[in-house]
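Quick entry, no commentary yet.
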Amino acid sequence: MDEFHELVTFVTENYPSYSYVIKPDQEIAVDGLIFRPRPAGGFYFLNENGEQEVTYSEAIDALRNDIEESA
């Protein structure tokens, strides 16, 4: 399974279905956070601070932080 699909799995397991939108192989939008796969690996991460390149681990950390803030 590639990183994008692993991120999709994490999102579907940890967020209610109404809080995310998945465009297969293109984009995951979760609670105002947007992740797009990079051709070289990792993700483009867009949020209120703009766009940055992140690794899979950094993407998971951003989502975990979002879950903690929402709790």
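second:
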Amino acid sequence: MTEHETTSDLRMLSRQQLIAWAEGGAHTTRLRTFRDVIPEGFMAALAPAIVDWKLSDPLGDDPYVVLRNVNYGGNPLEKTTVLHRIRLPLSGIAFVEFVLVPSTRGGLHALAHHAQLRFVFEPEKRPVLLDLEDSPVGSASRIPDLVLSWETWHESSVRYSGRKGLDASSYKLSLRAYAGPQRYLEDTLHGRAWFGYRVRVPGGELGASELLKVVLALGDGVARDTISQLLEQGEEAWARNAPSADTEPSAKAEWQKLRELIHQGRTYTDSHLTLSAEQQGYQTLVRSCATLARYAVLTATKRMIHQGFTEGLDQHKVPKPFMGQATDWMQSMATTNLWGLFVRAPLALKYVVRHPESVPDKIPDELAAAGLIEKRDGKAWVTKYAHHGTSPYDRSGRYGLDHTP
């Protein structure tokens, strides 16, 4: 919350509003970023991306999914967030970038980075904002790219801390979806540049499509499990505190309907496309924005290799898609005092040396060595996008440079 906001300023979305949102009846949702909350006080504006499977056709001749809770059109200055439904094609991807966003000064040499995956589409395959698709006026119903970003989901009063995130119970894990221009605008307002590395999953466009499917499958499953947990906790709190007038069967039926709507997801036979209940908390070293983006790239690569696509790969250097486990010392570091940090520092250093993937800016070089990042002059090819410099979009709103390396 800002310094002018208090707990009393928060506005809990009603069950009727949540049902309309879960059913897809609320096509576009405009929220007060820090004030509108769902059960357990979690920020509605941070809602994860969810696939509307009833309206999707992922196996058709022109496959697509309808993706909900895509962030586009809000104003970070007035603290509003707008979440859309989009029709997202699963083909026609021009390129994919592994994007590092420095969280501190220093560019690529900054102490900390956020990582995200950017999917850029060919003009005729751009994702469609469904509320604007049939508008009789205007022509801007499509977005040029989609940014998928693993982030924390938390209460409005909470702020992210990397140290606190060492305890996986501190934050829920969430895959958030942004129209690329929205995310770039917000990062630019904070003075943050993008450093984009061109991802190279074997199979060309098929590989890029497979990567998109992997990320969506992981994110959709985690989102439904997490929201189900929050609803269960919210219902328990309601049962304890609801006034007698709110104990009618209709109220109980609404909670039941909410749970049923959220459970209308998909099941997967590939264990790499799901995260267990123990893996659904954000963890700074093990399950972070960067390690999960890396995991998705490696999982998609493994699936393409099984289909016979190996061109350009050094298979001996392709890491296995492996999800690590948090340890006791990591959890204790989240709350220990200065002496405790000093005592555990050698353990942290040892872990980082053994697991360089826990450091975001080490990942591109690792993937490039395996043939999973495009190279120039023998090094991972990176493009810096900044307000005063190269833009990720040209004047037509497409992209600011030739997409062939």
